[in-house]
Write a structure and sequence with these properties.
This protein is mainly α. The chain has a domain of 233 residues: MetI-like fold (Orthogonal Bundle), CATH 1.10.3720.10. It is built from 16 helices and no strands. It is globular, with a radius of gyration of 27 Å.
């Protein structure tokens, strides 16, 4: 064998290629491994959520057939049983669950048990953009306002600004969202009549120009967004203040101050970055609160969103529509938790290097 061809033959050796692949796999990314482990955990959690939700809504008083038969004196027991067979309610509870789970595995949400019998997915997709859009807008406004307020309140501890913010925050905590919504409706909609009380658009919305449509939407969404944001600002600004106070007592902050670094650099480059780490986790956990709050706010302001759809489904005992909303809320919550965990790894180098596991 020619010695000059030995290196080329070594490169073509399948055993060598297998060893190289094993080395590549072995040198894994800790952050990627963390995300994959979270995905497996999310699958088991979602399965548990579906079991509990499916059991609870079927144990609640009432059924979809009651809405169609109780108020109609001409409907007898035979018609009720036919409706139960049509909806699959004549089967045992565990059989109903596995039938539903099999459809969900194929991304088939089924049809609504209400009178229109429309596909559940179509109903959800119609209402989803409004609810998600309002929640995202509220989240952005909350971050823009709460983070600077919390940082300044911590850095100016016990000052007039800090005491004023503390008072306003406690008022925001103590104020129920539905009560704040009623106050805004009385002030802006009844006394001054400068904002519409309910709905998403005006009756002549289609006749407006593009700027006119944007202005009309903004007028209708001002009060709901205010109600969404006030409570979130109160909690997040207080959390940010506590996190900043804890970080400001660390040795590296005291060292930076002793070196004479400007206050702006100490606050925004050193203290604020580390104080944001717990806030990222809080953002992921705040998703279910936003979705749950949509039910109340959208019902008060008569907004055609996912919250109002969920409320109507519960009142009608529309099992398939309720489960579709619950599964969607659970998926969004778990994805928010995963995104927060991923962002936590991006911000904290110890997680990226695998030196810290949460």
């Amino acid at each position: 064998m020619d010695g000059r061809n030995a290196p080329d033959q070594c490169l073509d050796d399948p055993n060598l290629k297998r060893i190289e692949m094993q080395n590549v796999i072995g040198t894994h990314n800790p952050l990627l491994t963390r995300v994959l482990r979270k995905l497996v955990w999310m699958a088991f959690v979602l399965w548990g959520i579906t079991i509990i939700s499916f059991t609870v809504i079927h144990l609640a008083p009432g059924s979809p057939t009651d809405m169609e038969t109780t108020l109609n004196p001409q409907v007898g027991e035979a018609a009720r049983k036919q409706l139960e067979i049509l909806y699959g309610l004549d089967k045992a509870l565990h059989e109903q669950y596995f039938d539903w789970l099999g459809r969900m595995a194929r991304l088939d949400f089924g049809k609504s048990m209400s009178a229109d019998a429309r596909p559940v997915l179509d109903k959800i997709l119609e209402r989803l953009p409004l609810t998600v859009g309002m929640n995202l807008a509220s989240l952005v406004l909350t971050l823009i306002i709460a983070v600077p307020v919390g940082v300044l309140s911590a850095w100016k501890q016990d000052s007039f600004f800090d005491k004023t913010v503390t008072l306003l925050v406690f008022m925001g905590f103590a104020m129920p969202s539905f009560w704040l919504a009623l106050l805004l409706m009385m002030f802006f909609g009844i006394e001054h009549q400068c904002l519409p009380l309910s709905g998403l658009t005006s009756l002549d919305y289609q006749q407006f120009t593009i700027l006119g449509k944007i202005w009309d939407l903004a007028r209708h969404l001002f009060m709901p967004l205010t109600v969404y944001t006030v409570g979130s600002i109160a909690g997040m600004s207080r959390f940010m203040r506590s996190s900043m106070l804890e970080v400001s007592r660390q040795d590296y902050i005291l060292t930076a101050m002793a070196k004479g670094l400007p206050t702006r650099i100490i606050v925004f480059r050193h203290a604020m970055r580390n104080a944001l780490l717990p806030l990222i986790t809080l953002l992921g956990l705040s998703v279910p609160g936003l979705i749950g709050g949509s039910v109340i706010i959208e019902s008060i302001f008569a907004l055609p969103g996912l919250g109002q759809l969920f409320y109507a489904a519960v009142m009608a005992r529309d099992y398939t529509l309720i489960m579709g909303n619950l599964v969607l809320g659970a998926v969004l919550t778990l994805l928010g938790n995963l995104l927060a965990d991923f962002c936590y790894g991006l911000v904290d180098p110890r997680i990226r290097s695998g030196g810290r596991d949460a």
